[in-house]
Amino acid sequence: MSSAQPFSGRPQDLPVKADLARLRVEYGKAERLAYLGHLDLIATVERCIRRARLPFSIGNGYARRVRIQFSSALPVGASSSCEYFDVRLTERVDAREALRSLRAATPEALAPLRAEYVPGRLPALEAWLDRSSWELACPRLAVGAEDLEEGVRRVRAAGELTYLRGEREKRVDLASTLVGFEAREEGGVVRARVETRVGATASLRPQVLLDAALSALGAPPATGVRVRRTAQLHEESGRLVEPFGPFGNEAPAPLS
């Protein structure tokens, strides 16, 4: 980045959010940050935006926070190669320059990968991205891949999955949230791919599905499982839409 700043770093407060430039950023969350909570993640990204000196807008609330929206929170213990946030800017700066500035201001384990402007009136990211793909690596599983698939079939046949999250009971409708599951064995490790959809009342967590499948088989709980989100998409009229469009905008801005 050149020494001459191409845009101002001073935030302004504009009341009409839809009229502000909406920059969508894709970033990863490395495996070593799998236990970084979502609130800590939000605070870290906000600090990075400030350090990058982007012309961000701030809200009207008491806290006067950066106008930013995130995709759905990752389960604790999961990493990802496809997380997103939308930040509202008071100036439409070059997307490639914004991406370079963000990368220079962000820890490598959360490094931005891609940036593009999207229409301001799109629904909030957390609601709009309603499909996810996951990979599970299970190095110490007591059952094989075929048995694990059978366990998932048994759980799915029940129609509903109930589990405790903290002290609260959660119920997940598997007919609407579990899109697909397949497993294979590779070098002594069972690897599974899970396709999920956001449900009306709750989302399906891959680790919860794995635990339920093992319980259905009478197998002991898994240890050392690594969970990674590999895709987030929007489902619309039977087709899947990428987070960056197509919306009729310019092409995404990957940083070479």
Features:
about 260 residues; alpha+beta; ten-stranded mixed sheet; two-stranded antiparallel sheet; elongated; disordered N terminus
Could you characterize the architecture of this molecule?
With 256 residues, this protein is α+β, with helices and mostly antiparallel strands. It is built from six helices and twelve strands. Strands 1, 2, 3, 4, 5, 8, 9, 10, 11 and 12 form a ten-stranded mixed sheet that branches. Strands 6-7 form a two-stranded antiparallel sheet. Strand 6 (160-165) and strand 7 (168-173) form a beta hairpin. Helix 4 (145-158) packs across helix 6 (206-217).
Number of strands: 12
Largest sheet: 10 strands, mixed
Total of helices: 6
Helix content: 10-25%
Low-confidence stretches: 1-16, 248-256
Task: Tell me the radius of gyration.
Answer: 20 Å
The amount of beta strand, in percent, is 25-35%
Structural class: alpha+beta
Mean pLDDT: 88
